[in-house]
Amino acid sequence: MRKERGTKGKLVATTSHAGRGLLDEAPVGLVVFDAEGCVLDANLPMADLLGVKNGFIAGASFFQFVAAGSETVFRGYLEGLIASGREELRELALVREDGLSVCAMVRGFASRKEGESVAVIRAAFMDLGAGDGREDHQAGPADELKAFADNVLDGIFRLDRKLKRVYANRVMLDLFRGGGERLPDSLDDWDFFSGKMINRVKRSARKVFGTSQIQELEVICDREGGPGYFTMRLVPEAAADGKVATVLAIMRDITLLKRNEAEIKTEHSFREAISRSLSIGIGAIDDQGKQIYVNPAFCGIVGWSKEELLGKQFPYVYWPSDERRKARRIFLKIRRGRKTSGSFELNLQRRDGTCFDALIMYSAFHDNAGNRIGWIGSVGDISGIKRKEKELQRLNKNLDTIVRKRTDSLRVQNRNLRDILMGLNRAQEELRLSETKVLLEKQRLETILNVVPAGVIVVEGKEARIAYVNRRAQGFFGRRPPAGREMVETLVHLKLLKPDGEAYPYEELPLNRSLLEGETVRGEEMALVRPDGQVVPILANTTPFVIGGEIVGAVGSFVDITKIKRSEESIRTLNTELAKNLLLVEDTNKELEGFVHSVTHDLRSPLVVINGFSRRLLDLPREEFDEKNHEYIEYIKETSQNALFLVRDLLRLFKIARGEINLTMVDLAQMSRSLQQYFGGLYPRRSMKLIVDDSLKVTGDYNLLKIVMENLIGNSYKFTAKNDGETIIEVGSYRTEEGLVVFVRDNGCGFDLTPARRIFEPFARFHKETEYQGSGIGLATVKRIIHRHGGRIWAESRPGQGATFYFTLPE
How far is CA 703 from the centre of its chain? Predict the structure, then answer.
């Protein structure tokens, strides 16, 4: 459209195609500007508003219709529309073609065609009346403006230079809780603003009056149901003289946007806290095999960062070159198959080149339409389990059967665990991703927490209220929330023990340390007492739950280590039994060695004597037979009797080595007193003083312990026979870290410990047979009995200063 000036400077139309593309029937003026204010198109009501004949104004500069002093306001309005890209409302003073002034309300916005950088401005003008009636217009807007303002969703009000309200639309009146059909003129009486917020609005309005610059701020209104959040835009409105006469305020409600942002921020922080607390690797790929998610634990396991892994297609960098064909075959089979969950083992490679065995458990996830969109899986390093299996194979052959049974048990348990996880995965198939991003993140997090083989618990608030537990944790704690309700109990209801069995003080619980002190706990061992009284050993990891730099809760994961504890205890028991068996074998070998020595030496000597004297009897002349036969027969009798005693002691020793032990409570003090009577009968001419504790009770076999005390007290009787003074034998006990130690002490001849290291071996003698008789088997028998009870025996002595024998028995 083109226009020219007439002889009197008036605008006239030169084309018959005016108003093309505009709504000439519209009740308001519509116009399209370029960035410089040149009219590109306009409808007939706009031309009528400006008093242009024939309705053609396209091609003219709109500045010629702007009242003197308002050009700056109009230019700033155009620049503001282009810069912000939003709709803006402004009152403007115009001059008609016939010279009359008119006030109009203009609402405009800037737009660009696709591929073009030049913006055009589309605006709607509403006639507010003649310029001479402006003051009346400010006091009460025209009916057209009121209808227009009351039907928009934004709150609109106008302030004069005294900061008094001169206009407010229906939205502003709805915010006023004081009642009535009219909003108070003074801002101080607006009950939906706090005093601090009113002062802030006043400062911004004064700044608009002083600088003629648009001010934007965010305000909070008190209204039913909670606080409301608004953006407020303060726009200067110029009078005919170009000065700012009023300020127009436009309030847009952003409460829903604020709430959504807070929910997304909270959910993102919650997901990040859970991801950091998990010690097991979690990863996800889309249905084309692209890596779309890895948690920190996964990056820590393989050694590559999150940025290096995300977006990569298989073969992935953590697949060893010799395992790629196998891994590709497994992944393609999973992708093409109908199974939505499962597990498999695969050898993976770390960044440093080392490899490890991994157990991978996977599950598919779907979109809202039920279409599969990817896979999520957990990666656990099972190299330690593999190494332990190899170490167990190197144990003694006697442990092979136990190891095989244990391995079979572990396999059964692993199959049961896989069945449980597969059951959980089948339950997860019924879940669907929600339509919003927040619900999608929640569902993905729920799937991760229920796949991992660890209990997860989330507490919130300073009172440590339990906000969430996963299914594994529900199994640990032995409780579930009521149907349709959330878990609301606190940590006070959980009974946790330290490894030594002492109860945890409430403030020292790992979750409380993370909640109250911000501490991150890794791998702390403890025990959980379930409601049924069962004690379950667990390994805990906790981390604080931080939102906006403030700790609002804590997240913990717990792993049941009962099987590991049982394996360790089984190995310790087997080692103890093996040590006992080795000790028994060693004693048996020494006894066999002594037996051979006895047969070759001690038994051979009496047989030689018997044989020699028998030959002498046969070789004696008849005249000397009556004289020598009695003497020789006495030698033969004494020697054969000693041999019989030796054979008896040997049989006794080996019978003790193989008989069963019947454990009872035995009072060694009472037994010693009865033995005093027995030995008193054997040695009636001896004067002996026996010192015994009032009660000396131990656990053991009564008959075997009686043999021990007979030998020890009998030795004391034997080796005190040549004492010059009174014989004193003391039987007592004392306690050490090893347990109860029993001793038998005498004041006899004693012996030198240096050559007497073999004192407890069979047939060991440290005195001549002519001085003290004996077979040398008694102390060997004592040692064998003590060892069979699981204790130990030793002696202390010096020549001429008596001897003391000590022994211990398990309690």
Answer: 57
